[in-house]
Every structure is written in structure tokens, then in C-alpha cells.
Write a structure and sequence with these properties.
It contains twelve helices and 14 strands. The longest helix has 22 residues, at 291-312. It is α/β, with parallel strands linked by helices. It has two domains: 6-209 and 326-408, Zn peptidases (Aminopeptidase); 211-324, 2-Layer Sandwich (Alpha-Beta Plaits). The structure holds (2S)-amino(hydroxy)ethanoic acid (HGY) and manganese (II) ion (2 copies).
Length: 414
């Protein structure tokens, strides 16, 4: 079985973690920011050091190709993302990209030439924090998003994706589409939840991911003076919003057992201590494995908005920012992962993931698998995010051996 060079893997991980590293051991590496540009440069130079041919596509996805004995064979694609949340952890995305890098290095250590080419990828803007939606680069690549629309997407400062790509030198020219359908895609990611740790397992073999919807609600009230305005005449957009926010939280208690809801962003205008808020906008993140439950949840959010605004004399808009149905991963790859984890003596279990991953979109295109390693206390999207290094190495060994097996496989892709 292929072994991972834990020392080199760790050194690489620490080197990358310095780029955009925060004082609390986290990462501040927003998509297409200067620090994202720096870590991309680091990644490209590591790919070139391995002799991989590197290409950048129109939305900045970075691909490195390791040729196989059969150049005509469809490649195995492996990777994840290097962008982070504003105060994110060092493992979310980055561990997956570096596990893929260590996989290629392990082939190189053992002079392995695989039958199929193997391609490693860093997907642009998986997080969707600076530019919405999430999974932007992989979504554009599989054709979910129109490339021009993605390039004209702006952040809160009005900077477009296109300008940000140019700014860091990753406005690539390779068409953003799979000129050849990969034979399979495999991604390793931290679990970002408490299950593996609670169950004492080293590896999660992910069978599917929750469906999710991102909405933006805007409530319009009437600015007025906090002093002389009688309470019964007010149209306070923040009061109406507060009703809706608690209504959104209540959804998770009655809509379905696996429903999770989050209001992560909220903007109040004019945001002045003695002015009744005239406008309040906020995002809603709604998830469930049942796509119909997500649709019912959206209807119930609309009903909450309508009744809150009727009570407060305010008006509202509700916009769907992004929606992705639940993901089902390849049972064939899950079985391979089971077998290899057993051969390596690694405890493992099948599970459903709650976070979106680039693998969600690849699953529509080809045989796709996702491997989890435990998150300590389930913490993530948080500078305290942590994974024990032994677990990272165990995950990398299961991952690398599965990639090797897939790269030697003969059967045609689906
Ligand atoms: O939103 C998510 O689940 C992922 O972190 N982009
Ligand atoms: Mn991630
Ligand atoms: Mn994330």
C-alpha cells in the first residue's frame, strides 16, 4: 500500500497555513484576495516542481496534470479549495488540496506511473463568502453557472470576479468546462461536524450531502425619530426582521428532523442609534437531505415574512440567491473506500455531510467520492478548527490508495 510522507505533508500544511494565517491559528484567505493569490502561487510552484503541466481556466480554477501510461484515458480528478471563510480554519479545503498534492508526491516517491492521467485541482471560491454563490468555480466548470455571469459577479465593494482574477493574475484562458469528462473525482475534506469524533471513527465515507438554499430577505420600513414617534405608528424593519429570524430558527424544530437553518448576515439601515430602521436585509441558509423539505421551508419563510410585515406595516422582498439539490455519491467509490480503509486498518463509517463541497457538483458529472476526517469538537468556519495530524495522515493514506486504484481501473466511466 502507498504510504504518505507525514513529515513533508505537515511541513507543506504549515507553509500554506502561514499564507493568510491569523493570530488565532485560523485563516483569512477570501476568494481571489491577495492572500488567495499568494497561496495559488505556492500551489502552482509545487505543481511545477512535480513536473505537472499547469493550466488556469477562465474563472481561475487551477489544474495540474500528471500524465498516465494511457494518454487517451479519461483522468482521475482530485482536489478541493484553498479559499477560506473570513475567520476560517486551516483545514477546511486546504487539507483536501494538500492531501491531493501528497498523493501525487507519493506516486512520485514510488516511481508509479498510473494507467490513467491524474489531475489535481484547486477550485475557485468554494466558500461563497466574498462572492456568492458558494462552489462557484466547480459550478461554472460543470456548467451550472454561465461563465460571463460569474465573471461579472461583484463583492460588497463592487469588485467583479473578473477584476479580482486579473488583480491576482489568475484570469486564465483555458475554457471553463470539462474538455474531457473525468473517469472519477475524489475529494478529502474535514467533516466539519461532531459525528466521527463522537463515534470514535478515523474516516467518514460520505454517501450524500444535504440539499441547500441561500435566500436574501429585505424588509422595508419607515425611518423616523426614536424619540417622538409613537410606538403604534412605527414601521420598524428590524422588528419585523427579528420576528422572521426567530421564525427561521423555529423551522428546524418542525419542518423535518435534519433541517438546519442559519441567518448569517444582517444589515440594518441607516444603522443609527436614534433612527427607526428603514431597511433590514438578511441572508437565510436552509438545508435538508429532502429537496421537497427545502422547497416547503422556502414557502414557510415567505409566510413568516408576510405575517411579520403585516404586523409591523412593512414590506418585503425575498430573493433566492442559490439552491442545490441533495447530492448522492458513487456507491462504487464508497465500496472501494470501505475496502481500502479495512485493508489499512482504519475505522470508518458511511455518513451524510451537512456542508456543501465541490464534490457536490462533480457528482452530476462523473463517479464521485468524498472522504471525511474528524473535526475536533466538530468545530469549523472558526479559527479553532482542528484535526489531529494522525487523522489527517490516515485520511490521506485511504485517499491516496483509492486514487491509485481508480487510476489503474480499466472500466469506462459512466
Ligand atoms: O456553505 C457550505 O456548506 C460550504 O462551506 N461552502
Ligand atoms: Mn470546504
Ligand atoms: Mn467551508
Amino acid at each position: 500500500m502507498l504510504e504518505i510522507n507525514s513529515k513533508r505533508f505537515r511541513e507543506t500544511f504549515e507553509r500554506y497555513s502561514k499564507i493568510g494565517g491569523t493570530a488565532n491559528d485560523g485563516l483569512h484567505r477570501l476568494a481571489l484576495s491577495t492572500t488567495d493569490g499568494e497561496v495559488r502561487d505556492e500551489f502552482v510552484s509545487d505543481l511545477e516542481a512535480l513536473g505537472l503541466s499547469v493550466r488556469i481556466d477562465e474563472v481561475g480554477n487551477i489544474f495540474g496534470r500528471l500524465p498516465g501510461a494511457d494518454q487517451a484515458a479519461a483522468p482521475i480528478l482530485i482536489g478541493s479549495h484553498l479559499d477560506s471563510q473570513p475567520k476560517g480554519g486551516r483545514y477546511d479545503g486546504q487539507l483536501g488540496v494538500l492531501t491531493a498534492l501528497e498523493t501525487i508526491r507519493a506516486f512520485d516517491d514510488s516511481d508509479i506511473e498510473t494507467q490513467r492521467p491524474v489531475e489535481i485541482v484547486n477550485w475557485t471560491n468554494e466558500e461563497g463568502s466574498r462572492f456568492k454563490p458558494a462552489l462557484m468555480g466547480s459550478g461554472a466548470w460543470v456548467g451550472i453557472h454561465d461563465v460571463d455571469k460569474i465573471l461579472s459577479t461583484t463583492d460588497e465593494q463592487g469588485t467583479t470576479v473578473e477584476d479580482a482574477l486579473k488583480e491576482i493574475g489568475y484570469d486564465g484562458t483555458t475554457p471553463c468546462d470539462p474538455n474531457e469528462i473525468p473517469h472519477a473525482y475524489l475529494e478529502l475534506h474535514v467533516e466539519q461536524g461532531p459525528v466521527l469524533e463522537e463515534h470514535g471513527r478515523e474516516i467518514g465515507i460520505v454517501e450524500g450531502i444535504l440539499g441547500m438554499a441561500w435566500l436574501e430577505a429585505t424588509i422595508y420600513g419607515e425611518a423616523d425619530h426614536a424619540g417622538p414617534s409613537p410606538m403604534h405608528t412605527r414601521s420598524d424593519s428590524l422588528v419585523a426582521a427579528a420576528d422572521v429570524v426567530t421564525g427561521v430558527r423555529r423551522l428546524s424544530t418542525h419542518l423535518a428532523d435534519d433541517v438546519v437553518t442559519t441567518v448569517g448576515e444582517l444589515i440594518v439601515e441607516p444603522n443609527s442609534v436614534n433612527v427607526i430602521p428603514s431597511k433590514t436585509s438578511f441572508t437565510i441558509d436552509l438545508r435538508s437531505y429532502d429537496n421537497e423539505v427545502v422547497n416547503r421551508g422556502i414557502d414557510q419563510i415567505e409566510a413568516e415574512l408576510s405575517s411579520a410585515c403585516a404586523r409591523e406595516g412593512t414590506k418585503y422582498d425575498l430573493e433566492e440567491l442559490w439552491k442545490i439539490p441533495h447530492t448522492e455519491f458513487s456507491q462504487q467509490i464508497c465500496t472501494r473506500l470501505d475496502t481500502i480503509a479495512n485493508e489499512l486498518g482504519r475505522s470508518h463509517e458511511r455518513m451524510i455531510g451537512g456542508a456543501g463541497h465541490d464534490a457536490s457538483y462533480l457528482a452530476d458529472l462523473t463517479e464521485t467520492g468524498l472522504v471525511f476526517v474528524p473535526s475536533v469538537d466538530g468545530k469549523t468556519h472558526n479559527e479553532q478548527e482542528f484535526t489531529e495530524w494522525d487523522d489527517a495522515v490516515a485520511g490521506a493514506e485511504v485517499f491516496a490508495n483509492t486514487v491509485l486504484q481508480l487510476a489503474e481501473s480499466e472500466e469506462t466511466s459512466q
